[in-house]
């Protein structure tokens, strides 16, 4: 225990270390004895300490994290067979995987792939707050870099509605972009524009633009019109840029770190413009814990 550390924060830090280890080793066997060793806690008491801190037993947490990843693979990696996803999640057969997936998600893997119930996914697979803090500890919110951006023309899908349904908009945008030459990957940037704090507005009023940098005009793009994709411009100017590593579910901790820990003593003032996210590495190209997102705070 550190000299100034309380017993509560000591155990919290040990469990958070274990959460990060679980994320990074989902493809491996994770017996309690191994996790207790990672935490530096007694194997006889670790499972109770984990449950007290996270709220669920460690075995259930590992299973849910694997099913969460499986759901993302089903939705965003159409080239993967359900069998491939099942094996990646640690199941011996598609049947066992389907039973476990349906018990949590309420849909079979095939039905989820065809028409995901994203609000239920959000409710069932939301990461625990302890893991949010673990990701925040890996962010650069306390020491952002100051940058000046040129305006960025983007293709944007305007999400309007509950944050729990944002993934449906993301999925629709990805489906459009996959066949588009206007904003091809990986040569153009993937971005997001956050207009509202999801904790400060009614769910139906939440606004977020899912964006990709434009390589050419959308004029005459019938697929873009059908998908609801429009041309916009992300404002240029000065920004403070903090790097967030890990799940974007926890990106709010990095955002708050900019406002709470850096801005008051920076001598800077925020500009009347929304936050911008630049998704540098993201699911499904990398594992969730390997994602990298730069958070752009607009400055005067």
From TrEMBL:
<protein>
    <submittedName>
        <fullName>Probable AraC-family transcriptional regulator</fullName>
    </submittedName>
</protein>
<dbReference type="InterPro" id="IPR050908">
    <property type="entry name" value="SmbC-like"/>
</dbReference>
<dbReference type="InterPro" id="IPR010499">
    <property type="entry name" value="AraC_E-bd"/>
</dbReference>
<dbReference type="InterPro" id="IPR018062">
    <property type="entry name" value="HTH_AraC-typ_CS"/>
</dbReference>
<dbReference type="InterPro" id="IPR018060">
    <property type="entry name" value="HTH_AraC"/>
</dbReference>
<dbReference type="GO" id="GO:0003700">
    <property type="term" value="F:DNA-binding transcription factor activity"/>
</dbReference>
<dbReference type="InterPro" id="IPR020449">
    <property type="entry name" value="Tscrpt_reg_AraC-type_HTH"/>
</dbReference>
<dbReference type="Pfam" id="PF06445">
    <property type="entry name" value="GyrI-like"/>
</dbReference>
<keyword id="KW-0238">DNA-binding</keyword>
<dbReference type="InterPro" id="IPR029442">
    <property type="entry name" value="GyrI-like"/>
</dbReference>
<dbReference type="GO" id="GO:0043565">
    <property type="term" value="F:sequence-specific DNA binding"/>
</dbReference>
<keyword id="KW-0804">Transcription</keyword>
<dbReference type="InterPro" id="IPR009057">
    <property type="entry name" value="Homeodomain-like_sf"/>
</dbReference>
<dbReference type="Pfam" id="PF12833">
    <property type="entry name" value="HTH_18"/>
</dbReference>
<keyword id="KW-0805">Transcription regulation</keyword>
<dbReference type="InterPro" id="IPR011256">
    <property type="entry name" value="Reg_factor_effector_dom_sf"/>
</dbReference>
<feature type="domain" description="HTH araC/xylS-type">
    <location>
        <begin position="16"/>
        <end position="115"/>
    </location>
</feature>
């Amino acid at each position: 225990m550190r000299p100034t550390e309380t017993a509560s924060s000591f155990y919290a830090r040990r469990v958070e270390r274990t959460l990060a280890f679980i994320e990074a080793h989902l493809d491996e066997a994770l017996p309690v004895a191994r996790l207790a060793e990672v935490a530096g806690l007694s194997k006889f008491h670790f499972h109770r300490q984990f449950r007290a801190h996270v709220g669920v037993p460690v075995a259930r947490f590992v299973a849910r994290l694997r099913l969460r990843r499986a759901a993302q693979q089903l939705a965003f990696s159409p080239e993967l067979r359900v069998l491939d996803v099942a094996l990646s999640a640690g199941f011996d057969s598609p049947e066992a995987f389907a039973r476990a997936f349906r018990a949590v998600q309420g849909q079979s893997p095939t039905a989820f792939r065809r028409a995901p119930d994203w609000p239920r996914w959000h409710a069932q697979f939301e990461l625990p707050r302890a893991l949010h803090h673990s990701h925040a500890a890996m962010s650069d919110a306390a020491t952002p870099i100051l940058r000046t951006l040129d305006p960025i023309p983007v293709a944007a899908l305007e999400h309007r509605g509950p944050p729990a349904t944002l993934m449906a908009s993301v999925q629709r945008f990805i489906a459009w972009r996959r066949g588009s030459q206007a904003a091809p990957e990986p040569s153009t940037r993937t971005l997001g524009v956050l207009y509202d704090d999801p904790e400060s507005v009614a769910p139906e009023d939440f606004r977020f633009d899912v964006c990709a940098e434009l390589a050419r005009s959308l004029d005459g793009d019938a697929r873009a019109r059908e998908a609801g994709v429009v041309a916009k411009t992300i404002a240029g100017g000065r920004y403070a840029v903090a790097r967030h590593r890990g799940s974007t579910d926890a990106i709010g901790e990095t955002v708050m770190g900019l406002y709470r820990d850096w801005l008051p003593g920076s001598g800077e003032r925020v500009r009347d413009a929304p936050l911008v996210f630049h998704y540098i590495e993201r699911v499904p190209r990398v594992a969730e814990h390997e994602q990298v997102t730069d958070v752009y705070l607009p400055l005067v």
